[in-house]
C-alpha cells in the first residue's frame, strides 16, 4: 500500500511540476560560468561598497523630491500612457521600461477607490455581475480580481463576465516573445538575429510549456463555449498556441477566428461597469466616466490580437520564402479578415483603430506583391497595407487570391 | 516526465561520483557545472514547483539561484557531514522559503488552483493538448490537496522521500532534524496522505 501510494505521489508531483526547460539550463550555465574565483578574505573588501552606499545615501538626501516617488513631470500615469502608446504602435519596450500599464501603476487618485472596491461591492452589490466585474478589474489584488470576476461568471455567465474573468486569468498567466511578435521580417537576417538576441537578453521566455498555459486555455475554452460566435477568445487561444510553438494549430485556429463575424472583447461593457462603480463609490459622474478607461483597458484585445497578427504575417513570409504561397496567403488573408471583423464589430474607437492596424499588418505583405507588379520595383514606393482598407481589400482578394498562388510558386512574384 | 529523469536521483549520490563532481566544481570546470545542473536541477525544479504552488517561473529562478549559490559556496560543503544531494537540496529549500515569504506578501493564489479543469477536458479540437492539459491540472490539484492536508515540513519530507528518493539521513540534513525524527514525521505524513488520497477515491 505504502509503495503504491509513494508511486502515486511521485507521479502526481512529476506531472504537476512538468519538465525543466532547456532555456533554464542555458541561463543557469551562463550564470555559473560568470562566477569567478572566490574573493580574498580581506576584511577591507567591503570598504568600497560601504563608501559607495554612503555616497548614494548622501546624494539622495540632497534631491529636491522624494527618491521613492517619480520625479516631477514623470508621474506613473504618464509613463503608463507612453507604454500603452508604444504597445499600440508596436514599438519594442525599452530596457527597464514598464512593458505596459498594469494594476500596480494605476493613477494615484484611483488607488483609494481600487482598495475599497472589493469590500464596497461585496457589501452593497453582492449579486450584481456588472459591479463584480468592475471591482475585479479595478482592484490591485489579483486574487481578489479572480474571486470577483469568477463570482460574476457564476452569477451571470454573460460574455462580458467571461471576458473579465479571462482577462484576469491571462494577466496572471505567462507571456513570451518571438521574433514574429516584434514584426521582424524573416528575410532580413540582420534584423532577425538582432531580435533573437534582444529576446534572449530580455529574460522573457521564447516559448511556453503546457503547464504554463493549461489554466489559461481552460478559461478561454469556457469563454468560447459561452460565446461561440465571438472570435476574441479564439484569438487569445491562438496567442498561447504560438507560445507553445504549435504553429500549424495556431494558424488553423486563426483562420477560424477570421471566419467568425463577431470580435467583441467587451471593452465597452467594462468601461460602462467601471464608470457605474466609481460613481456609486462617490466619484462625480464626469470623473467616473473619464476615469473608467483607467482600469477597463485590462479587458481589451489590443496586445494579444496584434501579436497574433504579427506572428501570422511572419509565418506567412516564412511560407513564402519556402515556396508555399498558399500557406502564405492563408496566413495573411485570415489576418485581414480578423482585422476587418474587429473594425465592424467595434464598440469603441480604440478597438476600431486596432482592427485597422491588424488589417494593415495582414495586408502589407500582399500589397508588396501588388506594388512590385505595378511599379516593377521590389518593395517599391507604395508602402504596404496603406490602401488595404474598404473596397481595396475586396478588389485585391478578387483579383489576386488564387492567381497569386499559381503565379508565385517560388514565393517571388513575377508579373 | 520521463522514467530516466525520475531514476536520476538514485544514481547520483554515490560518494565517488560526488567526489569527482566536487573536484570539478572547485576548479569551476564547465563540465562539472553542467553535471551539477543535470544531476540536481530536475529534482529541484519538481520540488520548487510543487512547494511554490505551481509557480513555474519562480521555480525556475530557484533552480538557477540554487545552482549559482552551490557553485559559489562549494568550498563550504563538507562531504563528511552530508551528501552533496542533501547539501544542494538544503540550499534549494532555503531559496524556496524566501520565495514563499515573498508570495505571502503578494498574497497570491496560484492560477491553476483557481481555474476549473472541466473546460480543459472539453477541449474538443486540441487532441493531445486537451488530454495533457487536463492531466496536468488534475495532478496539480492532487498536489494542492496533499499540501493542504500536510504541514509544510511533512509535505517537504514526503516529496524528498517519495519523489527525490533521498534517504532519511539525507532528509535530516536538508531540514535540520535527526534521522529518527524524520522517520517519525514521514510516518505521520504518509498516514495523512493515505487518508486524503483514499478519501478522494
Task: Explain how this protein is built.
The complex is a heterodimer of chains A (415) and B (201). With 415 residues, chain A is mainly alpha-helical. Chain A has 2 domains: 99-156 and 266-299, no CATH class; 176-263 and 301-415, no CATH class. Helix content of chain A is 67%, strand content 0%. Chain A has 19 helices and no strands. Chain A has helices spanning 2-17, 22-33, 47-61, 76-89, 108-124, 129-138, 142-156, 159-172, 189-202, 210-226, 232-243, 247-259, 267-280, 285-291, 293-296, 302-321, 325-344, 349-375, 391-407. In chain A, α16 runs parallel beside α18 (349-375). The longest helix of chain A has 27 residues, at 349-375. The termini of chain A are far apart. Chain B has one domain (3-108, 125-200). Chain B has 201 residues and is mainly alpha-helical. Chain B has 11 helices and no strands. Chain B has helices spanning 3-12, 15-26, 30-51, 56-72, 84-106, 111-114, 118-121, 128-149, 152-163, 168-175, 179-200. Mean pLDDT of chain B is 79; it is low at 1-12. The two termini of chain B are 24 Å apart. The interface between A and B is large, with 56 and 65 residues.
Estimate the mean pLDDT confidence of chain B. 79
User: What share of the residues of chain A does DSSP label as strand, in percent?
Assistant: under 5%
The low-confidence runs of chain B, each spanning 5 or more residues with pLDDT under 50, are: 1-12
DSSP summary: helix tally of chain B: 11
Termini Cα gap of chain A: 75 Å
Largest sheet of chain A: none
Please tell me what the overall shape of chain B is.
globular
- The pLDDT mean of chain A sits at 74
Number of H/I helices of chain A: 19
Number of separate strands of chain B: 0
Helical amount among residues of chain B, as a percent range? over 70%
Shape of chain A: globular
Which structural class should the secondary elements of chain B be placed in?
mainly alpha
Supply the number of structural domains of chain A: 2
From the alpha carbons, calculate the radius of gyration of chain A and give it in angstroms: 25 Å
Amino acid at each position: 500500500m505504502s509503495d503504491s501510494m509513494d508511486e502515486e505521489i511521485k507521479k502526481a508531483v512529476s506531472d504537476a511540476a512538468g519538465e525543466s526547460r532547456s532555456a533554464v539550463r542555458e541561463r543557469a550555465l551562463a550564470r555559473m560560468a560568470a562566477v569567478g574565483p572566490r574573493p580574498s578574505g580581506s576584511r577591507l573588501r567591503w570598504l568600497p561598497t560601504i563608501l559607495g552606499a554612503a555616497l548614494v545615501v548622501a546624494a539622495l538626501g540632497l534631491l529636491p523630491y522624494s527618491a521613492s516617488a517619480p520625479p516631477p513631470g514623470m508621474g506613473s500615469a504618464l509613463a503608463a500612457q507612453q507604454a500603452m502608446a508604444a504597445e499600440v504602435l508596436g514599438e519594442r519596450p525599452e530596457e527597464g521600461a514598464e512593458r505596459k500599464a498594469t494594476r500596480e501603476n494605476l493613477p494615484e487618485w484611483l488607488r483609494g477607490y481600487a482598495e475599497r472596491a472589493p469590500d464596497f461591492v461585496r457589501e452593497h452589490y453582492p449579486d450584481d455581475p456588472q459591479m463584480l466585474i468592475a471591482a475585479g478589474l479595478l482592484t490591485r489584488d489579483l486574487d481578489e480580481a479572480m474571486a470577483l470576476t469568477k463570482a460574476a461568471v457564476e452569477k451571470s455567465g454573460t460574455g462580458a463576465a467571461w471576458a473579465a474573468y479571462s482577462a484576469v486569468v491571462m494577466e496572471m498567466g505567462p507571456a513570451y516573445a518571438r521574433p514574429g511578435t516584434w514584426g521582424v521580417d524573416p528575410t532580413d537576417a540582420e534584423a532577425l538575429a538582432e531580435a533573437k538576441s534582444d529576446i534572449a537578453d530580455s529574460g522573457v521566455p521564447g516559448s511556453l510549456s503546457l503547464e504554463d498555459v493549461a489554466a489559461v486555455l481552460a478559461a478561454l475554452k469556457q469563454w468560447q463555449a459561452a460565446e461561440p460566435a465571438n472570435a476574441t477568445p479564439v484569438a487569445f487561444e491562438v496567442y498561447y498556441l504560438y507560445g507553445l510553438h504549435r504553429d500549424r494549430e495556431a494558424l488553423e485556429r486563426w483562420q477560424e477566428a477570421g471566419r467568425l463575424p463577431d470580435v467583441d472583447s467587451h471593452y465597452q461593457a467594462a468601461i460602462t461597469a467601471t464608470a457605474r462603480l466609481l460613481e456609486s463609490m462617490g466619484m462625480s459622474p464626469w470623473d467616473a466616466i473619464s476615469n473608467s478607461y483607467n482600469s477597463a483597458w485590462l479587458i481589451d484585445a489590443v496586445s494579444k490580437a496584434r501579436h497574433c497578427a504579427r506572428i501570422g504575417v511572419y509565418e506567412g513570409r516564412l511560407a513564402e520564402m519556402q515556396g508555399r504561397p498558399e500557406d502564405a496567403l492563408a496566413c495573411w488573408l485570415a489576418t485581414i479578415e480578423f482585422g476587418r471583423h474587429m473594425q465592424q464589430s467595434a464598440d469603441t474607437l480604440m478597438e476600431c483603430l486596432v482592427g485597422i492596424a491588424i488589417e494593415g499588418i495582414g495586408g502589407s505583405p500582399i500589397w508588396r506583391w501588388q506594388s512590385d507588379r505595378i511599379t516593377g520595383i521590389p518593395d517599391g514606393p507604395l508602402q504596404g497595407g496603406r490602401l488595404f482598407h474598404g473596397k481595396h481589400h475586396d478588389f485585391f482578394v478578387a483579383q489576386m487570391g488564387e492567381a497569386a498562388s499559381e503565379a508565385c510558386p517560388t514565393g517571388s512574384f513575377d508579373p | 516526465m520521463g522514467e530516466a529523469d525520475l531514476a536520476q536521483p538514485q544514481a547520483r549520490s554515490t560518494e565517488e561520483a560526488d567526489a569527482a563532481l566536487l573536484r570539478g566544481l572547485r576548479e569551476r570546470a564547465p563540465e562539472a557545472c553542467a553535471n551539477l545542473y543535470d544531476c540536481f536541477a530536475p529534482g529541484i525544479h519538481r520540488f520548487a514547483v510543487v512547494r511554490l504552488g505551481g509557480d513555474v517561473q519562480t521555480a525556475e529562478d530557484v533552480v538557477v539561484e540554487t545552482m549559482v549559490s552551490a557553485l559559489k559556496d562549494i568550498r563550504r560543503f563538507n562531504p563528511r557531514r552530508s551528501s552533496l544531494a542533501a547539501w544542494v537540496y538544503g540550499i534549494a529549500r532555503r531559496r524556496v522559503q524566501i520565495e514563499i515569504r515573498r508570495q505571502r506578501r503578494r498574497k497570491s493564489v496560484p492560477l491553476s488552483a483557481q481555474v476549473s479543469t472541466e473546460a480543459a477536458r472539453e477541449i474538443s479540437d486540441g487532441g493531445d493538448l486537451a488530454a495533457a492539459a487536463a492531466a496536468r491540472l488534475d495532478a496539480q490539484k492532487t498536489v494542492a490537496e496533499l499540501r493542504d492536508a500536510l504541514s509544510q515540513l511533512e509535505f517537504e519530507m514526503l516529496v524528498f522521500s517519495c519523489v527525490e528518493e533521498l534517504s532519511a539521513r539525507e532528509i535530516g540534513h536538508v531540514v535540520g532534524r535527526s534521522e529518527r525524527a524524520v522517520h517519525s514525521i514521514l510516518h505521520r505524513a504518509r498516514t495523512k496522505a493515505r487518508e486524503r488520497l483514499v478519501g478522494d477515491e
